[in-house]
Task: structure prediction
Amino acid sequence: MTNLTERTLAFGFGLLGGALMLLGSLMTFVLAGVDFALGHAHGAISSVALGVVLLVVGVLVLFFAYLGHRVWTDRPLASGILLVTLAAVGWAFLGLGANVVALVGALFAFLGGILYLVEPAKRFVTAPALS
Result:
């Protein structure tokens, strides 16, 4: 295996997390269509709202994972904090099992954010103490 860095793993986890959240959003939209077809308008509206939130969060996870890997290579702290925050938002809307695929995606986004935070944490720990 070649030199696999934390940043490469974070990018992979961020991409996987964002893709799973988008897949969860698609599944939620399908569920909304089924609910609507069965005459459960309230359930359909609720599913559409959750699907929109998951869609936005999934796209943002993909965006910040990309930024952390390509554009913000000198600022992994910002990407890490944003990915951890987006994972927390995803968990807040999902609860503990409303959409398992999106929940696993939020977990991968969280792991990607933590991995982006490893490099700044190393620099902070090894920095000389300010007097």
